[in-house]
């Protein structure tokens, strides 16, 4: 249906006709000069069957999404938003090139449509971008990425930090003499090297073999498949050097890539260039200096000068031959304005990205699924499945990315039966990462939880668990504790089948380790305390004094049930054994040892309590997680005016209130004097007699209206009463002959009529009461009215 | 005053009283029993209460060095004394006594809470060494000077002050005065100071306070400058070149030289003297700069040496600790095995294994120590050599400069002699135009006198210069020997301590297995 397209789609302007004539001329010369080359893509038909020059189909546009300010965002958006359609047949140029707006509406296009839109976006963002028409491999043309590694799986380039070698210092001690045989060391090193080389060779062979196997089958149309992509030239927007963007995938390639086999022509919104270079070896050695007329044949002279040359260097030149330039410009034809409708993408469309908000891409041994935000109930936006084979049957690892989750989950990785969940800050217990076994998610199983220790009062940063152990790591605690390790024993079997929560696991041993507390002497600063509960033993190791290599230790053997005795604990000398580093130091007094023991017994109780609290916390977290997974609610930002129902309602309500307020104000401003002023022709000044008259008229009018209203109510009242009266009489006459329904109807009517009469009566009474008030009010107002101030003036 | 009627005999703090107090206030229950058996050392006591005992004189508290809290309220103490040993005291209560003067608190630098309620104190003074004072209670005393309260400005941590019941409180402006001048206070006379009062006080005393603060600031700046200068001088002294950056040496040459002073009045000599001084001071300055440079070099050298030694020690320690930790693991395992086995052969074998392991670890640890000793010895020798070279180089150079000084003095002396000769000639011939002062004229009686005078002056000067030189040489020499001796002694002590430590550790290990409660062995 052509009718929906604007005029510019349906016909050519004079200028466009002129440029088409130019194009025809250019083509004729080209065909004449290069008889064996394929035709150029110059003037395809548009959706209305009208010839249009390809340069005018580009429309540089900068959309208001921040991601689209960078080429990565543009490329990704184009690749996601549109569905590709391959050229039919693949070795011939398409006949049509549709406008970007049509393509965006249909969300379907071939490589030229893709490139056209991408190039428009890039030009809008300030890149020096061109559409390239040329030849590419089958994989590129058909978007077959199954031989490529998924970009998410590509190993990140690690910035290797050279460990600063300690400078040899003047007084560094000499290392002890190495007494090993140099010869043997040398021989060993040689042997090792040989082995390594062997290994390397083997690996290389293996890799070669795999590469051979994975090579795509030979393509009969190799080198003939037509493709279009985008060239971004270096120089603008801090792009260091030229590169290609493949529009189907949104990936960038260097010009030396073997996937692109040849170039026929390039164009942007200002000019069109045909390639004059040989493409026998692909695009590897091609120069993209479009100013070089040896290598590129331009179509419109002059219009591209400012585009190509670096303005800074040429500025002075420009100034000098400004006049000349102008003259020259006049001679050349410049590009007509674009005929296409503006490129528009609504926020909703932008957020949906892919058609229906879903997209699946197959990579080498991997599958990538993308979903729009808020599309899936659980907030999943990306899922990457990694397989061990090329047929994608043997699943190895699944990585999922989530967004906007109420429980702050951002990624989840399943691998080797382990699940790793990452969270962002803001969870109630500051959980950062949770690693557990997929087949045993319950408590007291193997798991590791990492926490945001800065957000926690206890400074816990990591808790590792196995069925018989808990290890907790702490950071920055006031009591210098950095590790607590708990060893559990087996639950004693009881007669009653106890639940997991019922009987806590018996604790065998608690080990607590502390950092050095410099405010205390090292020999009194505990480095490690071990509560061996099943042996009623407490082992304390103190920190090492600075020059010492041994640490003082003290073991306590506490009598059974010592914790219940408190201060009444009997002291015996064999309850402790000590190793003191400094043999000459005074031995500790029994009193302090005794007090120490009492304190340790208390600490032991506290530690046991803390272990139980930890276990409880793990259970709580797991419970919370379970609940959250079931609910899987999505958070909606308060700034998201579309999705946030509450905010929307609130906004609507505010709007409504504002409207009402406005109406009310209008009413308020209704002027009671206006009609009377109009009667006397809206005079600028009102004299005394006029003022009197106005006042009188106004009051009389109100009086009349009040009386009218009273009469009206009275009238209705009387009418109702008489009607009722009539019906009553009627009823009394026919009462005997009446059916039950009629009777009921009559009673209904009666009660309703009575109600109406009552209301009217009330209204009348109220009116009678209110009327004098209203009258007084108006009089008051009139008295204060500035316009009638003449009444009170002494001079008439 | 109430004590006037007290009939109880005043008492003194004696051992019996202290013992009783300590025991009463010490640990209770089982701990108390242990304490009684063992006896409590006074130096371990942390808090002591000696109230209502009619104590007249504070004495015999020197053993309580760890004491943090001392309560001696409600006695009849008249003088604060005998507290100098209680350097850890944080809380001192001397309320309800007869003290008339604040004194004897100089050593209690950690004091935070001082209570002097109900005494006879008239002035706040002698508390400059208590920077941590937090709470001060001097209510019911006889303080009557408002200005005296400004004394409390020096306690930046003072939050609570009680002055009620002093004559000074009768002053109308008392409260606002205190609030204005002691802005760090939070509570005054048992009450929180509210914002309202604070503002009122501030606006009332704004000008005076500003002036006071300005003065305080200036005093602080001056003090700082003085301190800096002192520090700088200390540095110069360590470089052996103090005062050489000033003309002090030159001036001192003339100070003890009466002849020279007289001669300096000779006409025309002023210019020469000035010239001489300039040159002399210039060389002095050079000496100073060189000395400072040498000092800097010495410092960096020493720091470098210490850093390297420390690095070597810590590396050695790391290795040893690793070995010990590994051994500990083995030991724990072995012990736990030993405790469950009851096979005599197995036990025997394990015991042997353990003893061998202990011997091996002794070897390893001692080996480490020997290695470290060798390494350090070598490094120390290097350092010694370098330092000696450096010092002798410095001394030589400085000696060269001082020779220059001497040359300057000689040249000056010759010139002076020449000049005096010509003047003498003139005097003899009575051709002198200008009048000479009398005592100077006395010198020009004959040639011998004048030559003697000049000679004496010259000698004095040379002695001064020589002395300065000697001083530099001896001081640098003695510093070097001292430094090297310290290093040697430190290394020696370290080695001894380490060897003792290893031996005692090994002994402990051997004891441990002997005292192990082995299960009954079955042969």
From TrEMBL, chain A:
Signal peptide (from-to): none
Keyword Coiled coil: yes
Domain CEP76/DRC7 peptidase-like: 227-299
Coiled-coil positions: 644-671
Subcellular location, record wording: Cytoplasm, Cytoskeleton, Flagellum axoneme
Keywords tagged on the record: Cell projection, Cilium, Coiled coil, Cytoplasm, Cytoskeleton, Differentiation, Flagellum, Spermatogenesis
Family: Belongs to the DRC7 family.
PANTHER family, A to Z: DYNEIN REGULATORY COMPLEX SUBUNIT 7
Protein name as catalogued: Dynein regulatory complex subunit 7
The species this protein was found in: Ciona savignyi
From TrEMBL, chain B:
GO CC terms in record: cilium
InterPro entries: Cilia_flagella_integrity, Leu-rich_rpt, Leu-rich_rpt_typical-subtyp, LRR_dom_sf
SUPFAM superfamilies linked to this entry: L domain-like
A Pfam family matched in the record: LRR_9
UniProt keyword annotation of Cytoplasm present: yes
Localization in the cell: Cytoplasm, Cytoskeleton, Flagellum axoneme
Database matches in PROSITE patterns: LRR
Chief location: cytoplasm
Coiled coil feature spans: 212-239, 366-418
Keyword Chloroplast: no
Transmembrane segments annotated in the record for this chain: none
Keyword annotations of the record: Cell projection, Cilium, Coiled coil, Cytoplasm, Cytoskeleton, Flagellum, Leucine-rich repeat, Repeat
SMART domains from the UniProt entry: LRR_SD22, LRR_TYP
Sequence similarity: Belongs to the DRC3 family.
PANTHER family in the cross-refs: DYNEIN REGULATORY COMPLEX SUBUNIT 3, PROTEIN PHOSPHATASE 1 REGULATORY SUBUNIT SDS22-RELATED
Protein name, per record: Dynein regulatory complex subunit 3
């Amino acid at each position: 249906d052509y009718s929906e397209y604007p005029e510019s789609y349906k016909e050519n302007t004079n200028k466009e006709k002129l440029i088409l004539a130019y194009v025809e001329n250019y083509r004729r010369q080209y065909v004449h000069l290069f008889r064996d080359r394929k035709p150029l893509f110059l003037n395809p038909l548009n959706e209305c069957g009208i010839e249009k020059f390809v340069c005018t189909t580009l429309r540089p546009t900068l959309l208001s999404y921040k991601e689209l300010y960078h080429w990565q965002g543009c490329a990704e958006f184009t690749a996601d938003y549109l569905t590709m359609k391959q050229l039919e047949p693949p070795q011939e140029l398409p006949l049509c090139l549709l406008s970007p707006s049509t393509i965006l509406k249909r969300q379907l296009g071939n490589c030229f449509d893709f490139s056209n839109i991408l190039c428009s976006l890039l030009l809008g963002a300030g890149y020096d971008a061109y559409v390239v028409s040329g030849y590419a491999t089958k994989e590129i043309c058909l978007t077959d990425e199954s031989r490529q590694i998924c970009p998410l799986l590509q190993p990140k380039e690690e910035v290797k930090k050279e460990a600063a070698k300690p400078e040899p210092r003047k007084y560094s001690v000499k290392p002890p003499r190495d007494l090993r045989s140099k010869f043997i060391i040398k021989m060993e090193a040689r042997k090792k090297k040989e082995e390594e080389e062997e290994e390397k060779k083997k690996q290389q062979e293996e890799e070669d073999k795999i590469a051979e196997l994975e090579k795509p089958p030979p393509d009969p149309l190799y080198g003939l498949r037509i493709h279009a992509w985008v060239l971004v030239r270096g120089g603008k927007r801090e792009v260091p050097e030229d590169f290609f963007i493949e529009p189907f995938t949104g990936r960038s390639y260097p010009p030396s890539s073997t996937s692109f086999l040849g170039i026929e022509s390039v164009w942007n919104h200002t000019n069109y260039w045909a390639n004059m270079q040989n493409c026998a070896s692909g695009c590897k050695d091609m120069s993209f200096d479009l100013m070089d007329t040896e290598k590129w044949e331009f179509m419109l002279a002059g219009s591209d000068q400012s585009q190509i040359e670096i303005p800074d260097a040429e500025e002075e030149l420009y100034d000098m031959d400004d006049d000349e330039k102008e003259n020259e410009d006049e001679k050349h034809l410049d590009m007509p304005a674009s005929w296409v409708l503006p490129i528009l993408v609504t926020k909703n469309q932008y957020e949906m990205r892919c058609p229906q908000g879903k997209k699946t891409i197959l990579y080498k041994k991997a599958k990538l699924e993308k979903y729009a935000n808020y599309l899936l109930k659980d907030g999943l936006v990306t899922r990457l499945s990694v397989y061990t084979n090329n047929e994608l049957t043997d699943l190895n690892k699944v990585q999922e990315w989530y967004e906007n989750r109420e429980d702050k989950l951002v990624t989840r990785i399943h691998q080797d039966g382990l699940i790793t969940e990452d969270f962002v800050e803001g969870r109630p217990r500051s959980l950062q990462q949770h690693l557990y076994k997929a087949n045993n998610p319950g408590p007291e199983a193997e798991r590791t939880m990492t926490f945001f220790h800065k957000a926690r009062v206890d400074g816990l940063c990591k808790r590792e668990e196995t069925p018989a152990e808990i290890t907790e790591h702490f950071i920055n605690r006031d009591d210098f504790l950095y590790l607590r390790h708990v060893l559990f024993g087996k639950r004693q079997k009881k007669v009653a089948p106890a639940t997991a929560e019922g009987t806590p696991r018996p604790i065998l041993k608690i080990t607590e380790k502390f950092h050095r507390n410099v405010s205390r002497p090292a020999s009194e600063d505990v480095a490690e305390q071990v509560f061996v509960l099943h042996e009623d033993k407490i082992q304390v190791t103190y920190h090492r004094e600075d020059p010492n290599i041994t640490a003082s230790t003290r073991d306590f053997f506490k009598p059974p049930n010592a914790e219940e005795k408190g201060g009444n604990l009997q002291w015996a000398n064999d309850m402790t054994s000590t190793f003191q580093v400094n043999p000459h130091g005074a031995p500790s007094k029994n009193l302090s040892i005794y007090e120490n023991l009492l304190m340790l017994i208390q600490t032991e109780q506290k530690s046991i309590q803390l272990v139980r609290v930890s276990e409880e916390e793990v259970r709580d977290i797991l419970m919370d997680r379970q609940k959250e997974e079931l609910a899987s609610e999505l958070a909606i930002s308060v700034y998201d005016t579309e999705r946030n129902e509450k905010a929307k309602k609130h906004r609507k309500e505010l709007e409504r209130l504002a409207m009402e307020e406005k109406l009310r104000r209008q009413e308020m401003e209704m002027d009671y004097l206006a009609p009377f002023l109009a009667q006397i022709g809206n005079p600028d000044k009102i004299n005394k007699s006029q003022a009197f008259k106005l006042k009188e008229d106004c009051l009389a009018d109100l009086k009349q209206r009040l009386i009218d209203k009273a009469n009206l109510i009275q009238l209705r009242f009387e009418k109702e009463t008489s009607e009722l009266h009539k019906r009553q009489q009627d009823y009394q006459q026919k009462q005997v002959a009446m059916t039950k329904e009629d009777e009921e109807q009559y009673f209904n009517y009666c009660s309703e009529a009575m109600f109406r009469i009552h209301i009217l009566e009330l209204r009348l009474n109220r009116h009678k009461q209110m009327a004098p008030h209203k009258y007084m009010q108006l009089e008051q107002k009139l008295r204060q009215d500035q316009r009638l101030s003449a009444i009170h003036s002494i001079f008439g | 005053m109430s004590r006037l009627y007290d009939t109880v005999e005043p008492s003194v703090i004696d051992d019996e009283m202290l013992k009783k107090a300590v025991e009463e206030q010490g640990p209770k229950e089982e701990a108390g029993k242990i304490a009684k058996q063992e006896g409590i050392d006074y130096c371990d006591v942390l808090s002591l209460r000696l109230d209502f005992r009619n104590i007249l004189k504070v004495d015999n508290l020197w053993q309580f060095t760890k004491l943090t809290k001392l309560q001696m309220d409600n006695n009849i103490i008249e003088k604060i004394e005998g507290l100098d040993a209680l350097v850890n005291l944080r809380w001192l209560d001397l309320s309800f006594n007869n003290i008339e003067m604040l004194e004897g608190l100089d050593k209690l630098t950690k004091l935070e809470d001082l209570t002097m309620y109900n005494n006879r104190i008239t002035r706040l003074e002698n508390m400059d060494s208590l920077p941590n004072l937090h709470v001060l209670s001097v209510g019911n005393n006889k303080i009557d000077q408002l200005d005296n309260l400004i004394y409390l400005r020096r306690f930046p941590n003072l939050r609570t002050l009680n002055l009620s019941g002093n004559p000074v409180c009768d002053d109308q402006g008392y409260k606002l005065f205190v609030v204005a001048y002691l802005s760090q206070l939070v509570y005054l006379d048992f009450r929180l100071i509210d914002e309202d009062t604070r503002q009122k006080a501030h606006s009332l005393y704004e000008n005076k306070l500003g002036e006071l603060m300005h003065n305080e600031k200036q005093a602080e700046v001056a003090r700082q400058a003085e301190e800096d200068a002192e520090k700088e001088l200390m540095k110069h002294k360590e470089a052996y070149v103090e005062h050489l950056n000033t003309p002090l040496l030159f001036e001192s040459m003339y100070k003890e030289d009466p002849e020279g002073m007289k001669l300096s009045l000779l006409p025309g000599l002023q210019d020469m003297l000035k010239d001489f001084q300039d040159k002399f001071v210039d060389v002095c300055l050079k000496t100073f700069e060189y000395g400072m440079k040498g000092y800097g070099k010495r410092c960096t050298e020493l720091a470098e040496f210490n850093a390297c030694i420390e690095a070597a020690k810590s590396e050695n320690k790391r290795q040893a600790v690793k070995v010990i930790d590994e051994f500990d693991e083995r030991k724990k395992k072995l012990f736990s095995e030993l405790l469950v086995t009851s096979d005599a052969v197995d036990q025997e074998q394990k015991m042997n294994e353990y003893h061998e392991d202990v011997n091996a670890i002794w070897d390893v640890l001692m080996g480490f120590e020997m290695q470290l000793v060798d390494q350090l010895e070598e490094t120390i020798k290097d350092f010694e050599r370098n330092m000696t070279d450096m010092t002798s180089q410095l001394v030589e150079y400085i000696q060269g400069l001082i020779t220059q000084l001497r040359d300057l003095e000689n040249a000056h002396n010759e010139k002076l002699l020449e000049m005096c000769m010509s003047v003498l000639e003139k005097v003899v011939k009575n051709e002198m135009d200008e009048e000479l002062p009398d005592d100077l004229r006395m010198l020009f009686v004959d040639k011998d006198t004048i030559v003697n005078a000049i000679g004496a002056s010259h000698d004095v000067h040379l002695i001064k210069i020589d002395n300065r030189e000697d001083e530099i040489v001896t001081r640098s020499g003695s510093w070097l020997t001292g430094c090297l001796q310290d290093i040697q002694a430190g290394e020696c002590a370290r080695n001894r301590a380490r060897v003792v430590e290893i031996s005692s550790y090994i002994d402990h290990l051997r004891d441990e297995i002997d005292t192990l409660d082995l299960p009954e062995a079955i042969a």
